[in-house]
Amino acid sequence: MAGGMGPGGPGRSRFLTEEEKKNMPKVTKALLLRIASYLRPYWLQFLLVFAAIIASAAVGLLPSILTGRVVDEALGGKDMKLLIELLLMAFGTLLVSQVVGVVESYINAWISQHIIFDMKNQMYDHLQHMPHAFFTTEKQGDIITRMNTDISGVSSVISGTLSSIVSNFVVVITPLAALFTLSWKLAIVGILVIPLLILPTRSVGRTRWQLLTQSQAKNDEMNQLINETLSVSGSMLVKLFTREQAEYDRFVKVNREVTELAIREQRSGKWFRVVMGMFTQLGPLLIYFAGGVFIIGGFDAALTVGTITATVALVNRLYRPVESLLNIQVDFTRSLALFSRIFDYFDKEISITSKEGGKLPVLRNADITFDHVSFSYEPDRPLIRDVSFTVPGGKMYAIVGPSGSGKSTLVNLIPRLYDVQSGAVTIDGVDVRDIELKYLRMGIGVVTQDTYLFNGTIRENLLYAFPTASQKNLEDACRIASIHDFILQQPDGYDTMVGNRGLKLSGGEKQRISIARVILKNPKILILDEATSALDSISEHAIQDALEVLMKGRTSIVIAHRLSTILKADSILVVKDGVIAEQGSHEELLAKGGVYRELYETQFSEVLALAGDEPGADAFAQK
Question: Beta partners for 527?
């Protein structure tokens, strides 16, 4: 029987917080039907659970009733044979009740875990198809919480709240029926005790709930402190600024507060158990007293000692389920709130989808055209404004501009990580929104500045681009990216673990692996978003030829900060404040003396000072 109280008294689920009351979900037919849609496939299993609950409750009455017969007939009649028979029957009913309870728990667990399985699959599939903007605005912790904690919480709703309501209702009804059958007078006396149990339960429970809430807040503060100071970056910062003692003092302070709250909470629980123990014993005492008055005073000739004993046993079965039923609103509200949070994510629009019957244009050597394109992340802050240009098929265009000018956003519109808000991006004359989405993205290779590797082996990260690639394919791609020799130097070679986000590798090593990954993909269109930013000059020169081979015969757009890359572009687009401020060759743009020249003299001045690394430095010096 699920009471939901937890050890030692009223648990966390007994009261709603002010925030929960404020954000209490509205109970609608649509919401209930939606919840029921997840339960409906398992209706047969639910029927078995409810049948088991009823059977367990009915069988659970027998030991109490048999106790009355033991007292009156076996002990009163001094019948040893009957005593043994009754005791064996009581033991048998207890055994059956426990077995039925185990079966009920097993089916409940099976149902709840299968519903969680269904919902997690649906949630993961839904999140996989959410637009990129969703992941840039939502907190990663919130996404993980909805995916894991919230959906896993459905288990407690199915096996706890739902079953508890049915179980407690049945367990209340059956003893009440049996009580009034045995003696309606003693039944009334037993029922009168129940309010004495409820009042202290709710009063002390509210106090403990407040303490637990404060304790949880302090635990959250402690966890935040631990996460910040004991992470890789956090611990380094602490060491560099010699803040070890200060952080230790902060931790001791929070830890002390957590400890004090825990002691107060446990102390209140001890006193609660004392009070509840007294009231629990008071019920049977009152029934014994009333029964004694009825028998000794001759007010009820039919009443026996066995009936009184059975009544006490049955009344004790009422205490916990009655208290639980009084808190149905809390459990029900929390359950609805849980489903509402899950449905909130399910209802988030998948705004970037593949149009039915999407087109499959030729992507190799295709022109890429931006036709009066505008885009903004926030309605009142336009980022890209009426941008128009064409990258001819097979050509390489470089995009340069100040930080925050919209360069990366511009190229992200091509694979539809975002969709334009006005205008159009076309490939081979076809709007990218009309191209089959998977086909579009499979034909585009992107190397970003912020290189991401999964926490696996080098091989696994490479195969992400081409799952059926042979070892020769991997090695050829890595040779082109100038990372093959480094991999062979590792003890595990291509099976070397890269760590979380590739933490075990340097920035340059990660970037060369990401370039090899794109080489394996063999895309028709190439986008390099400052792809060599994490490389030193030696490493960059080592793979510059590889990138040129990769770009040959492919329409390529490169967001560049290296002069050597810019000089090899067929044309340069200068982006500033969300517009194409200038376009032309290196020499043409320098001659204009505008934005590009300003960028050249500021962003590339350090490179020019090195003189030897960047081709064109001497030519610029002569101007």
Answer: 446, 557
